[in-house]
Write a structure and sequence with these properties.
The complex is a heterotrimer of chains A (56), B (223) and C (252). Chain B is mainly alpha-helical. Chain B contains eleven helices and no strands. Classes of the chains: A mainly alpha (56), B mainly alpha (223), C mainly alpha (252). At the A-C interface, helix 2 of A face helix 3, helix 4, helix 7 and helix 8 of C.
Chain lengths: 56, 223, 252
Protein backbone atom coordinates (compact mmCIF):
# COMPACT_ATOMS: atom_id res chain seq x y z
CA UNK A 1 0.00 0.00 0.00
CA UNK A 2 2.77 2.42 0.90
CA UNK A 3 4.39 1.45 -2.39
CA UNK A 4 1.32 2.73 -4.11
CA UNK A 5 1.42 6.06 -2.27
CA UNK A 6 5.14 6.63 -2.71
CA UNK A 7 4.98 5.98 -6.48
CA UNK A 8 8.66 5.05 -6.55
CA UNK A 9 9.67 8.28 -4.83
CA UNK A 10 7.76 10.51 -7.23
CA UNK A 11 4.77 10.94 -4.93
CA UNK A 12 5.01 14.74 -4.94
CA UNK A 13 4.74 15.00 -8.70
CA UNK A 14 2.16 12.28 -9.26
CA UNK A 15 -0.11 13.31 -6.38
CA UNK A 16 0.56 16.99 -6.95
CA UNK A 17 -0.82 16.65 -10.46
CA UNK A 18 -3.72 14.35 -9.53
CA UNK A 19 -4.51 16.41 -6.42
CA UNK A 20 -4.94 19.61 -8.39
CA UNK A 21 -7.20 17.85 -10.90
CA UNK A 22 -9.42 16.53 -8.12
CA UNK A 23 -9.44 19.87 -6.34
CA UNK A 24 -10.36 21.93 -9.41
CA UNK A 25 -12.98 19.53 -10.77
CA UNK A 26 -14.70 19.13 -7.39
CA UNK A 27 -14.60 22.90 -6.88
CA UNK A 28 -16.20 23.44 -10.28
CA UNK A 29 -19.05 21.03 -9.52
CA UNK A 30 -19.68 22.52 -6.08
CA UNK A 31 -19.68 26.02 -7.53
CA UNK A 32 -22.20 24.95 -10.19
CA UNK A 33 -24.55 23.40 -7.63
CA UNK A 34 -24.33 26.44 -5.41
CA UNK A 35 -24.95 28.75 -8.36
CA UNK A 36 -28.04 26.81 -9.44
CA UNK A 37 -29.48 26.83 -5.94
CA UNK A 38 -28.81 30.54 -5.48
CA UNK A 39 -30.57 31.35 -8.73
CA UNK A 40 -33.57 29.17 -7.89
CA UNK A 41 -33.83 30.72 -4.43
CA UNK A 42 -33.59 34.24 -5.78
CA UNK A 43 -36.17 33.66 -8.50
CA UNK A 44 -38.45 31.96 -5.97
CA UNK A 45 -38.21 34.92 -3.64
CA UNK A 46 -38.98 37.31 -6.49
CA UNK A 47 -41.99 35.22 -7.54
CA UNK A 48 -43.41 35.13 -4.01
CA UNK A 49 -42.79 38.83 -3.65
CA UNK A 50 -44.77 39.65 -6.78
CA UNK A 51 -47.58 37.30 -5.71
CA UNK A 52 -47.92 38.76 -2.22
CA UNK A 53 -47.86 42.31 -3.49
CA UNK A 54 -50.61 41.56 -6.00
CA UNK A 55 -54.01 42.89 -4.79
CA UNK A 56 -56.38 40.08 -3.83
CA UNK B 1 -15.87 52.92 -54.64
CA UNK B 2 -12.26 53.93 -54.01
CA UNK B 3 -13.36 57.56 -53.81
CA UNK B 4 -15.03 56.69 -50.50
CA UNK B 5 -11.86 54.99 -49.33
CA UNK B 6 -9.75 58.08 -50.03
CA UNK B 7 -12.38 60.35 -48.58
CA UNK B 8 -12.42 58.52 -45.22
CA UNK B 9 -8.64 58.21 -45.20
CA UNK B 10 -8.16 61.95 -45.81
CA UNK B 11 -10.77 62.86 -43.24
CA UNK B 12 -9.15 60.73 -40.54
CA UNK B 13 -5.71 62.10 -41.32
CA UNK B 14 -7.02 65.66 -41.23
CA UNK B 15 -8.77 65.08 -37.91
CA UNK B 16 -5.61 63.61 -36.44
CA UNK B 17 -3.49 66.48 -37.70
CA UNK B 18 -5.71 68.84 -35.75
CA UNK B 19 -4.93 66.91 -32.57
CA UNK B 20 -1.30 66.05 -32.99
CA UNK B 21 -0.67 65.05 -29.38
CA UNK B 22 -2.51 61.75 -29.87
CA UNK B 23 -0.04 60.73 -32.55
CA UNK B 24 2.96 61.84 -30.57
CA UNK B 25 1.82 60.03 -27.41
CA UNK B 26 2.05 56.65 -29.15
CA UNK B 27 5.45 57.45 -30.55
CA UNK B 28 6.83 58.59 -27.20
CA UNK B 29 5.30 55.63 -25.42
CA UNK B 30 7.25 53.40 -27.80
CA UNK B 31 10.43 55.35 -27.18
CA UNK B 32 10.04 55.30 -23.41
CA UNK B 33 9.37 51.56 -23.22
CA UNK B 34 12.37 50.86 -25.43
CA UNK B 35 14.58 53.18 -23.36
CA UNK B 36 13.51 51.66 -20.05
CA UNK B 37 14.74 48.16 -20.85
CA UNK B 38 18.48 48.97 -20.73
CA UNK B 39 17.89 50.58 -17.33
CA UNK B 40 16.25 47.39 -16.11
CA UNK B 41 18.52 44.71 -17.55
CA UNK B 42 21.82 46.57 -17.61
CA UNK B 43 23.62 48.40 -20.37
CA UNK B 44 26.05 45.73 -21.48
CA UNK B 45 26.55 45.79 -25.20
CA UNK B 46 26.09 42.06 -25.80
CA UNK B 47 22.96 41.80 -23.66
CA UNK B 48 21.35 44.71 -25.47
CA UNK B 49 22.21 43.27 -28.88
CA UNK B 50 20.47 40.03 -27.93
CA UNK B 51 17.47 41.70 -26.35
CA UNK B 52 17.06 44.44 -28.96
CA UNK B 53 14.87 42.71 -31.56
CA UNK B 54 12.46 41.29 -28.97
CA UNK B 55 12.20 44.54 -27.03
CA UNK B 56 11.51 46.59 -30.16
CA UNK B 57 8.76 44.23 -31.23
CA UNK B 58 7.12 43.95 -27.82
CA UNK B 59 7.20 47.75 -27.51
CA UNK B 60 5.67 48.06 -30.99
CA UNK B 61 2.94 45.60 -29.98
CA UNK B 62 2.12 47.60 -26.85
CA UNK B 63 2.25 50.95 -28.63
CA UNK B 64 -0.11 49.88 -31.40
CA UNK B 65 -2.34 48.32 -28.72
CA UNK B 66 -2.49 51.61 -26.84
CA UNK B 67 -3.46 53.55 -29.93
CA UNK B 68 -6.18 51.11 -30.98
CA UNK B 69 -8.61 52.23 -28.32
CA UNK B 70 -9.05 55.52 -30.16
CA UNK B 71 -9.52 53.91 -33.58
CA UNK B 72 -13.32 53.99 -33.55
CA UNK B 73 -13.96 55.78 -30.24
CA UNK B 74 -14.33 59.37 -31.50
CA UNK B 75 -16.55 58.38 -34.43
CA UNK B 76 -18.62 56.22 -32.12
CA UNK B 77 -19.22 59.03 -29.66
CA UNK B 78 -20.32 61.66 -32.19
CA UNK B 79 -22.45 59.21 -34.17
CA UNK B 80 -20.37 59.26 -37.36
CA UNK B 81 -19.89 55.52 -37.13
CA UNK B 82 -23.62 54.86 -37.27
CA UNK B 83 -23.87 57.05 -40.35
CA UNK B 84 -21.09 55.00 -41.94
CA UNK B 85 -23.06 51.85 -41.20
CA UNK B 86 -26.00 53.27 -43.10
CA UNK B 87 -24.12 54.19 -46.27
CA UNK B 88 -24.46 52.09 -49.38
CA UNK B 89 -20.70 51.54 -49.45
CA UNK B 90 -19.31 48.26 -48.08
CA UNK B 91 -18.47 48.80 -44.42
CA UNK B 92 -15.29 46.74 -44.67
CA UNK B 93 -13.89 49.27 -47.16
CA UNK B 94 -14.57 52.12 -44.74
CA UNK B 95 -12.95 50.10 -41.96
CA UNK B 96 -9.93 49.49 -44.17
CA UNK B 97 -9.63 53.23 -44.80
CA UNK B 98 -9.82 53.99 -41.08
CA UNK B 99 -7.25 51.32 -40.27
CA UNK B 100 -5.02 52.69 -43.05
CA UNK B 101 -5.16 56.18 -41.59
CA UNK B 102 -4.56 54.75 -38.13
CA UNK B 103 -1.48 52.91 -39.34
CA UNK B 104 -0.09 55.99 -41.10
CA UNK B 105 -0.40 57.86 -37.80
CA UNK B 106 0.77 55.23 -35.32
CA UNK B 107 2.55 52.46 -37.26
CA UNK B 108 4.60 54.37 -39.78
CA UNK B 109 6.22 56.69 -37.17
CA UNK B 110 7.48 53.59 -35.35
CA UNK B 111 9.09 52.35 -38.56
CA UNK B 112 10.73 55.72 -39.12
CA UNK B 113 12.07 56.04 -35.59
CA UNK B 114 13.44 52.48 -35.60
CA UNK B 115 17.02 53.51 -36.58
CA UNK B 116 17.24 55.54 -33.37
CA UNK B 117 16.22 52.50 -31.34
CA UNK B 118 18.69 50.39 -33.30
CA UNK B 119 21.50 52.69 -32.25
CA UNK B 120 20.40 52.54 -28.61
CA UNK B 121 20.76 48.76 -28.78
CA UNK B 122 24.01 48.76 -30.76
CA UNK B 123 22.51 46.99 -33.77
CA UNK B 124 24.41 46.97 -37.05
CA UNK B 125 23.22 48.92 -40.08
CA UNK B 126 22.04 45.76 -41.82
CA UNK B 127 20.06 44.77 -38.75
CA UNK B 128 18.47 48.20 -38.58
CA UNK B 129 17.46 47.87 -42.22
CA UNK B 130 15.85 44.50 -41.56
CA UNK B 131 14.19 45.91 -38.45
CA UNK B 132 12.60 48.72 -40.46
CA UNK B 133 11.50 46.29 -43.15
CA UNK B 134 9.96 43.87 -40.66
CA UNK B 135 8.20 46.71 -38.83
CA UNK B 136 6.96 48.04 -42.16
CA UNK B 137 5.42 44.65 -42.97
CA UNK B 138 4.34 43.80 -39.42
CA UNK B 139 2.77 46.92 -37.93
CA UNK B 140 -0.07 47.07 -40.51
CA UNK B 141 -0.98 43.51 -39.44
CA UNK B 142 -1.14 44.70 -35.84
CA UNK B 143 -3.48 47.54 -36.79
CA UNK B 144 -5.67 45.24 -38.91
CA UNK B 145 -6.06 42.53 -36.27
CA UNK B 146 -6.37 45.09 -33.51
CA UNK B 147 -9.25 46.78 -35.32
CA UNK B 148 -11.35 43.65 -34.73
CA UNK B 149 -10.78 43.95 -31.00
CA UNK B 150 -11.37 47.69 -31.04
CA UNK B 151 -14.70 47.13 -32.80
CA UNK B 152 -15.74 44.41 -30.35
CA UNK B 153 -14.95 46.47 -27.24
CA UNK B 154 -16.53 49.65 -28.62
CA UNK B 155 -17.91 51.85 -25.85
CA UNK B 156 -17.27 49.39 -23.02
CA UNK B 157 -16.12 50.41 -19.57
CA UNK B 158 -12.45 49.56 -19.21
CA UNK B 159 -12.34 48.76 -22.90
CA UNK B 160 -8.61 49.42 -23.18
CA UNK B 161 -7.40 46.77 -20.79
CA UNK B 162 -9.96 44.29 -22.11
CA UNK B 163 -8.79 45.00 -25.65
CA UNK B 164 -5.23 44.03 -24.77
CA UNK B 165 -6.45 40.80 -23.19
CA UNK B 166 -8.33 39.88 -26.37
CA UNK B 167 -5.82 40.95 -28.98
CA UNK B 168 -2.31 40.42 -27.59
CA UNK B 169 -2.46 36.58 -27.92
CA UNK B 170 -3.38 37.03 -31.59
CA UNK B 171 -0.24 39.13 -32.13
CA UNK B 172 2.09 36.22 -31.35
CA UNK B 173 2.87 35.15 -34.96
CA UNK B 174 3.87 38.70 -35.93
CA UNK B 175 6.02 38.99 -32.82
CA UNK B 176 7.75 35.65 -33.45
CA UNK B 177 8.63 36.25 -37.08
CA UNK B 178 9.20 39.99 -36.77
CA UNK B 179 11.83 39.69 -34.07
CA UNK B 180 13.08 36.42 -35.62
CA UNK B 181 13.95 38.26 -38.83
CA UNK B 182 16.08 40.79 -36.94
CA UNK B 183 17.80 38.05 -34.95
CA UNK B 184 18.92 35.98 -37.93
CA UNK B 185 20.06 39.06 -39.82
CA UNK B 186 23.14 39.03 -37.56
CA UNK B 187 24.33 35.84 -39.20
CA UNK B 188 23.31 36.15 -42.80
CA UNK B 189 21.05 38.67 -44.50
CA UNK B 190 19.70 36.12 -46.99
CA UNK B 191 18.38 34.08 -44.05
CA UNK B 192 15.79 36.76 -43.36
CA UNK B 193 13.91 36.07 -46.60
CA UNK B 194 11.63 33.32 -45.23
CA UNK B 195 10.70 35.52 -42.26
CA UNK B 196 9.92 38.53 -44.38
CA UNK B 197 7.95 36.48 -46.91
CA UNK B 198 5.90 35.01 -44.07
CA UNK B 199 5.18 38.48 -42.69
CA UNK B 200 4.19 39.56 -46.18
CA UNK B 201 1.85 36.59 -46.50
CA UNK B 202 0.30 37.41 -43.11
CA UNK B 203 -0.15 41.01 -44.24
CA UNK B 204 -2.02 39.94 -47.38
CA UNK B 205 -4.22 37.55 -45.43
CA UNK B 206 -4.93 40.20 -42.80
CA UNK B 207 -5.71 42.79 -45.49
CA UNK B 208 -8.39 40.57 -47.00
CA UNK B 209 -9.91 38.98 -43.89
CA UNK B 210 -9.53 41.44 -41.02
CA UNK B 211 -11.65 44.28 -42.47
CA UNK B 212 -14.52 41.82 -42.98
CA UNK B 213 -14.28 40.65 -39.37
CA UNK B 214 -14.00 44.23 -38.11
CA UNK B 215 -17.04 45.26 -40.11
CA UNK B 216 -19.02 42.34 -38.67
CA UNK B 217 -17.84 43.29 -35.19
CA UNK B 218 -18.91 46.92 -35.70
CA UNK B 219 -22.36 45.78 -36.81
CA UNK B 220 -22.68 43.66 -33.68
CA UNK B 221 -21.54 46.48 -31.42
CA UNK B 222 -23.79 49.12 -32.95
CA UNK B 223 -27.07 47.33 -33.55
CA UNK C 1 -40.82 10.47 -38.87
CA UNK C 2 -38.64 13.51 -39.04
CA UNK C 3 -37.35 14.79 -35.79
CA UNK C 4 -37.77 18.51 -35.39
CA UNK C 5 -34.38 19.60 -34.10
CA UNK C 6 -35.49 23.15 -33.62
CA UNK C 7 -37.88 21.96 -30.95
CA UNK C 8 -34.85 21.36 -28.74
CA UNK C 9 -33.49 24.77 -29.65
CA UNK C 10 -36.05 26.33 -27.32
CA UNK C 11 -34.65 26.96 -23.85
CA UNK C 12 -37.98 25.94 -22.32
CA UNK C 13 -37.73 22.42 -23.79
CA UNK C 14 -34.05 22.07 -23.24
CA UNK C 15 -34.04 23.04 -19.58
CA UNK C 16 -35.77 19.87 -18.31
CA UNK C 17 -33.94 17.74 -20.91
CA UNK C 18 -30.56 18.98 -19.68
CA UNK C 19 -31.68 18.27 -16.15
CA UNK C 20 -32.60 14.67 -17.01
CA UNK C 21 -29.34 14.13 -18.95
CA UNK C 22 -27.07 15.39 -16.17
CA UNK C 23 -27.38 12.31 -13.95
CA UNK C 24 -26.54 9.68 -16.63
CA UNK C 25 -23.49 11.70 -17.60
CA UNK C 26 -22.38 11.82 -13.97
CA UNK C 27 -22.77 8.06 -13.66
CA UNK C 28 -20.77 7.52 -16.85
CA UNK C 29 -18.09 9.90 -15.58
CA UNK C 30 -17.79 8.01 -12.30
CA UNK C 31 -17.63 4.55 -13.88
CA UNK C 32 -15.08 5.59 -16.50
CA UNK C 33 -12.95 7.39 -13.91
CA UNK C 34 -12.80 4.29 -11.71
CA UNK C 35 -11.90 2.01 -14.63
CA UNK C 36 -9.37 4.44 -16.08
CA UNK C 37 -7.61 5.12 -12.78
CA UNK C 38 -7.60 1.48 -11.70
CA UNK C 39 -6.16 0.41 -15.02
CA UNK C 40 -3.66 3.25 -15.06
CA UNK C 41 -2.30 2.61 -11.59
CA UNK C 42 -2.50 -1.19 -11.26
CA UNK C 43 -2.38 -2.67 -14.75
CA UNK C 44 0.59 -0.76 -16.12
CA UNK C 45 4.32 -1.13 -15.63
CA UNK C 46 5.86 1.08 -12.96
CA UNK C 47 8.72 2.10 -15.20
CA UNK C 48 9.07 2.49 -18.91
CA UNK C 49 12.23 1.68 -20.78
CA UNK C 50 12.87 2.17 -24.43
CA UNK C 51 14.03 5.30 -26.17
CA UNK C 52 12.29 7.53 -23.67
CA UNK C 53 12.76 5.96 -20.20
CA UNK C 54 10.18 7.16 -17.69
CA UNK C 55 9.64 6.31 -14.05
CA UNK C 56 6.39 6.31 -12.09
CA UNK C 57 5.77 9.95 -12.88
CA UNK C 58 4.69 9.03 -16.40
CA UNK C 59 1.31 8.16 -14.80
CA UNK C 60 0.51 11.86 -15.04
CA UNK C 61 -0.16 11.05 -18.71
CA UNK C 62 -3.58 9.64 -17.71
CA UNK C 63 -4.77 13.11 -16.76
CA UNK C 64 -2.41 15.35 -18.69
CA UNK C 65 -3.16 14.15 -22.20
CA UNK C 66 -6.94 13.84 -21.67
CA UNK C 67 -7.06 17.34 -20.14
CA UNK C 68 -5.07 18.76 -23.06
CA UNK C 69 -7.29 16.98 -25.60
CA UNK C 70 -10.45 18.16 -23.89
CA UNK C 71 -9.21 21.75 -23.72
CA UNK C 72 -8.73 21.80 -27.48
CA UNK C 73 -11.89 19.86 -28.28
CA UNK C 74 -14.03 22.08 -26.05
CA UNK C 75 -12.72 25.17 -27.83
CA UNK C 76 -13.87 23.66 -31.12
CA UNK C 77 -17.25 22.86 -29.53
CA UNK C 78 -17.44 26.44 -28.24
CA UNK C 79 -16.72 27.89 -31.67
CA UNK C 80 -19.17 25.44 -33.27
CA UNK C 81 -22.05 26.66 -31.09
CA UNK C 82 -20.95 30.28 -31.44
CA UNK C 83 -20.98 29.93 -35.23
CA UNK C 84 -24.37 28.22 -35.21
CA UNK C 85 -25.64 31.05 -33.06
CA UNK C 86 -24.32 33.71 -35.42
CA UNK C 87 -25.74 31.98 -38.50
CA UNK C 88 -29.16 30.82 -37.26
CA UNK C 89 -29.55 33.41 -34.54
CA UNK C 90 -30.62 30.82 -31.97
CA UNK C 91 -30.37 31.90 -28.36
CA UNK C 92 -29.70 28.41 -27.05
CA UNK C 93 -26.54 27.96 -29.14
CA UNK C 94 -25.00 31.05 -27.57
CA UNK C 95 -25.92 29.77 -24.12
CA UNK C 96 -24.32 26.44 -25.05
CA UNK C 97 -21.09 28.20 -26.07
CA UNK C 98 -21.20 30.09 -22.80
CA UNK C 99 -21.74 26.96 -20.78
CA UNK C 100 -18.78 25.17 -22.37
CA UNK C 101 -16.21 27.97 -21.96
CA UNK C 102 -15.45 27.73 -18.21
CA UNK C 103 -15.06 23.95 -18.36
CA UNK C 104 -12.70 24.37 -21.29
CA UNK C 105 -10.66 26.92 -19.36
CA UNK C 106 -10.54 24.54 -16.38
CA UNK C 107 -9.13 21.75 -18.54
CA UNK C 108 -6.62 24.11 -20.12
CA UNK C 109 -5.41 25.11 -16.68
CA UNK C 110 -5.20 21.46 -15.61
CA UNK C 111 -3.24 20.52 -18.74
CA UNK C 112 -0.73 23.26 -17.89
CA UNK C 113 -0.53 22.30 -14.23
CA UNK C 114 -0.08 18.58 -14.85
CA UNK C 115 2.34 19.38 -17.67
CA UNK C 116 4.49 21.35 -15.21
CA UNK C 117 4.41 18.50 -12.69
CA UNK C 118 5.41 16.04 -15.39
CA UNK C 119 8.05 18.33 -16.83
CA UNK C 120 9.90 18.73 -13.52
CA UNK C 121 10.91 15.05 -13.07
CA UNK C 122 11.07 14.34 -16.80
CA UNK C 123 12.76 17.42 -18.28
CA UNK C 124 14.15 18.83 -15.03
CA UNK C 125 12.06 22.00 -15.18
CA UNK C 126 8.50 23.01 -14.34
CA UNK C 127 8.15 25.19 -17.35
CA UNK C 128 9.84 25.14 -20.67
CA UNK C 129 8.97 27.17 -23.74
CA UNK C 130 7.99 23.99 -25.44
CA UNK C 131 5.65 24.63 -28.39
CA UNK C 132 2.78 22.53 -27.05
CA UNK C 133 2.95 24.00 -23.57
CA UNK C 134 3.10 27.51 -24.99
CA UNK C 135 0.17 26.81 -27.32
CA UNK C 136 -1.81 25.53 -24.36
CA UNK C 137 -1.03 28.78 -22.53
CA UNK C 138 -2.25 30.79 -25.51
CA UNK C 139 -5.41 28.68 -25.61
CA UNK C 140 -5.93 29.52 -21.94
CA UNK C 141 -5.66 33.24 -22.82
CA UNK C 142 -8.21 32.76 -25.60
CA UNK C 143 -10.70 31.17 -23.17
CA UNK C 144 -10.11 33.98 -20.66
CA UNK C 145 -10.56 36.58 -23.40
CA UNK C 146 -13.85 35.02 -24.49
CA UNK C 147 -15.24 34.99 -20.97
CA UNK C 148 -13.90 38.47 -20.15
CA UNK C 149 -15.49 40.00 -23.25
CA UNK C 150 -18.79 38.29 -22.54
CA UNK C 151 -18.94 39.46 -18.96
CA UNK C 152 -17.86 43.02 -19.87
CA UNK C 153 -20.89 43.63 -22.09
CA UNK C 154 -24.16 44.21 -20.25
CA UNK C 155 -26.47 43.72 -23.21
CA UNK C 156 -26.82 39.93 -23.48
CA UNK C 157 -27.46 39.88 -27.21
CA UNK C 158 -24.41 41.98 -28.00
CA UNK C 159 -22.30 40.02 -25.50
CA UNK C 160 -23.30 36.73 -27.15
CA UNK C 161 -22.59 37.86 -30.67
CA UNK C 162 -19.41 39.80 -29.93
CA UNK C 163 -17.79 36.98 -27.97
CA UNK C 164 -18.92 34.47 -30.62
CA UNK C 165 -17.14 36.50 -33.28
CA UNK C 166 -14.06 36.69 -31.08
CA UNK C 167 -14.09 32.91 -30.66
CA UNK C 168 -14.33 32.49 -34.45
CA UNK C 169 -11.39 34.85 -35.03
CA UNK C 170 -9.50 32.92 -32.36
CA UNK C 171 -10.12 29.61 -34.12
CA UNK C 172 -8.83 31.02 -37.41
CA UNK C 173 -5.72 32.31 -35.64
CA UNK C 174 -5.00 29.16 -33.60
CA UNK C 175 -3.26 27.20 -36.41
CA UNK C 176 -1.13 30.23 -37.30
CA UNK C 177 -0.21 30.81 -33.66
CA UNK C 178 0.56 27.13 -33.12
CA UNK C 179 2.67 27.02 -36.23
CA UNK C 180 4.59 30.18 -35.35
CA UNK C 181 5.34 28.89 -31.85
CA UNK C 182 6.28 25.48 -33.21
CA UNK C 183 8.58 26.81 -35.89
CA UNK C 184 10.09 30.12 -34.79
CA UNK C 185 12.58 29.47 -37.56
CA UNK C 186 10.47 28.93 -40.68
CA UNK C 187 13.05 26.65 -42.25
CA UNK C 188 13.13 24.09 -39.45
CA UNK C 189 10.82 23.01 -36.64
CA UNK C 190 11.93 21.48 -33.36
CA UNK C 191 9.95 20.34 -30.36
CA UNK C 192 10.67 18.85 -26.95
CA UNK C 193 7.51 16.79 -27.08
CA UNK C 194 8.10 13.58 -28.90
CA UNK C 195 6.17 13.10 -32.06
CA UNK C 196 4.63 9.77 -31.23
CA UNK C 197 1.64 8.16 -32.87
CA UNK C 198 -1.08 6.62 -30.74
CA UNK C 199 -0.16 3.21 -32.16
CA UNK C 200 3.26 3.31 -30.53
CA UNK C 201 1.88 3.57 -27.00
CA UNK C 202 1.71 0.40 -24.93
CA UNK C 203 -1.84 -0.95 -25.04
CA UNK C 204 -2.57 -0.83 -21.28
CA UNK C 205 -1.44 2.77 -21.06
CA UNK C 206 -3.42 3.64 -24.17
CA UNK C 207 -6.53 1.96 -22.78
CA UNK C 208 -6.32 3.90 -19.53
CA UNK C 209 -5.60 7.16 -21.32
CA UNK C 210 -8.57 6.79 -23.66
CA UNK C 211 -10.87 5.78 -20.82
CA UNK C 212 -9.83 8.84 -18.86
CA UNK C 213 -10.43 10.99 -21.93
CA UNK C 214 -13.96 9.61 -22.20
CA UNK C 215 -14.44 10.24 -18.48
CA UNK C 216 -13.36 13.87 -18.86
CA UNK C 217 -15.61 14.16 -21.87
CA UNK C 218 -18.63 12.91 -19.94
CA UNK C 219 -17.64 15.24 -17.11
CA UNK C 220 -17.68 18.13 -19.59
CA UNK C 221 -21.19 17.15 -20.72
CA UNK C 222 -22.41 17.01 -17.14
CA UNK C 223 -20.92 20.32 -16.03
CA UNK C 224 -21.92 22.07 -19.26
CA UNK C 225 -25.52 20.96 -18.83
CA UNK C 226 -25.52 22.08 -15.20
CA UNK C 227 -24.14 25.46 -16.19
CA UNK C 228 -26.54 25.66 -19.10
CA UNK C 229 -29.49 25.21 -16.75
CA UNK C 230 -28.28 28.08 -14.59
CA UNK C 231 -27.75 30.29 -17.63
CA UNK C 232 -31.20 29.48 -19.01
CA UNK C 233 -32.84 30.25 -15.66
CA UNK C 234 -31.09 33.60 -15.29
CA UNK C 235 -31.84 34.71 -18.81
CA UNK C 236 -35.41 33.46 -19.00
CA UNK C 237 -36.36 34.57 -15.50
CA UNK C 238 -39.30 36.56 -16.86
CA UNK C 239 -40.69 33.76 -19.05
CA UNK C 240 -43.93 32.15 -17.99
CA UNK C 241 -42.51 28.61 -18.00
CA UNK C 242 -39.93 29.62 -15.40
CA UNK C 243 -42.68 31.07 -13.21
CA UNK C 244 -44.66 27.81 -13.49
CA UNK C 245 -41.54 25.84 -12.66
CA UNK C 246 -40.95 27.97 -9.60
CA UNK C 247 -44.55 27.54 -8.47
CA UNK C 248 -44.23 23.76 -8.80
CA UNK C 249 -41.00 23.76 -6.84
CA UNK C 250 -42.51 25.98 -4.21
CA UNK C 251 -45.70 24.00 -3.72
CA UNK C 252 -43.73 20.75 -3.44
Amino acid sequence: MSDFFSQGGYAFFVWGAYGMVVLVLVAEVLQLRLQHRTILARLGRLARLSQSSRPE
Amino acid sequence: MWAVFWCVLKRDLLLAMRRRTDVLTTLFFFMIVVSLFPLGVGTERQVLQILGPGVVWVAALLASMLALERLFAADYEDGTLEQMLLTAQPLSLLVLAKVGAHWLLTGLPLVLIAPLVGMQYHLSDAQIGIMMLSLLLGTPILSLIGAIGAALTLGLRGGGILLSLLILPLYIPVLVYGSGAIEVSVIDLSDTMPYLSLLGAFLLAALTLAPLASAAALKISLE
Amino acid sequence: MTLNWFKFASPATFYPLAGRLTRPFWILTGVLLVIGLYWGFFQTADQLGGSNPQKEYYRIIFIHVPAAWMSMWLYIVLVFWAAIGLVFNTRLSFMMANAVAPTGAVFTFLALWTGAFWGRPSWGTYWDWDPRLTSELVLFFLYIGYMALHSAIDDTRRADRASALLALVGLVMVPVIYWSINCPDPTQCAALHQRSGLGKIESNILFSMLTMTLAFWMYSFATSFMRLRSIILTREAEASWVQELLNREHSR
